[in-house]
Amino acid sequence: MFVDSHCHLSFPELHGRISDIRSAMRAADVESALCICTTLEEFPTVHALALAHDNFWASVGVHPDNEGVREPTVDDLLRDAELPKVVAIGETGLDYYRLAGRTLAQMEWQRERFRVHIRAARLCGLPLVVHTRSASHDTLALLREEGGGQVRGVFHCFTETQDVADAALEMGFHISFSGIISFKNAEALRQVARSVPLERCLIETDSPYLAPVPHRGKTNQPAYVAHVAAALAGLKGLEVEAVASATRQNFHRLFTLARVTAGAGST
């Protein structure tokens, strides 16, 4: 059984298709999925998905790329973290890929938002779902500064270098791989995936984006996480069942509440 550790089922491409998505998950032996929040405005929809279905869970957080949205406080995040089936803080982090003419100094608002999430994760004990793009140096620096070794979590949809992976692993984080590892031009990332210990790996779709081969170019969905597992198994010279089992155990070990509250919702 596979677990999709990161998907956006609240996004319009997927939210109107939940019944079909769940049927496809069952057919592909995908056990469960973590529904990721990207704004506080979106959180009620994300949380409702987790409450309505026994194999969905939710996170709470504000994506670093989102501007013009409600800015979270530590108290906001802590309050929502106490709700049933909320198992993670994020998606959060830093993204300098689209500066739109701004300097890195002008991105302090993004760094402050990340600090708020790290502080909330440290206080409530939930794992942190980290997004980093073109910002790995500052991402790692803030985790060291604010986390102080007390924050665990995952670098999701990992696309960074071996050095960044090593630093994340040293801080106790997991590394999650998406369908990108199946893309033709991703050999450098495949080399990183080979090196990350299986006991620290997760798999994800990041639906509705980044559909893996053989579905590249289509709208992604949690059922396709089985193809991510197959790609990772090929890189590590393992049977896909071994990767499925290990990443499922890793997910439930990291997101402990997902194990404790399994079966809490309806089907």
If you had to describe this structure to a student in words, what would you say it looks like?
The chain is of the alpha/beta class. 42% of the residues lie in helices and 16% in strands. The chain has eleven helices and eight strands. The protein has helices spanning 12-15, 18-27, 43-52, 74-81, 108-124, 136-147, 162-170, 187-195, 225-236, 240-254, 256-260; strands spanning 2-7, 30-35, 56-60, 86-95, 128-133, 153-155, 174-177, 201-203. An eight-stranded parallel sheet has the order 1-2-3-4-5-6-7-8. α4 packs parallel to α5. It is globular. The protein starts with a strand and ends in a 7-residue tail after the last helix.
Give the termini distance in whole angstroms.
Answer: 17 Å
Question: How many DSSP-defined strands?
Answer: 8
The helix content, as a percent range, equals 40-55%
- Shape estimate: globular
Sketch the topology as an H/E string, one letter per element: EHHEHEHEHEHEHEHEHHH
Short description:
The protein is α/β, with parallel strands linked by helices. The protein contains eleven helices and eight strands.
Descriptive keywords:
267 residues, alpha/beta, 11 helices, globular
Show the helix and strand layout.
Layout: E1 2-7, H1 12-15, H2 18-27, E2 30-35, H3 43-52, E3 56-60, H4 74-81, E4 86-95, H5 108-124, E5 128-133, H6 136-147, E6 153-155, H7 162-170, E7 174-177, H8 187-195, E8 201-203, H9 225-236, H10 240-254, H11 256-260
Parallel strand pairs: 1-2, 2-3, 3-4, 4-5, 5-6, 6-7, 7-8
Helix pairs in contact: 4-5, 5-6, 9-10
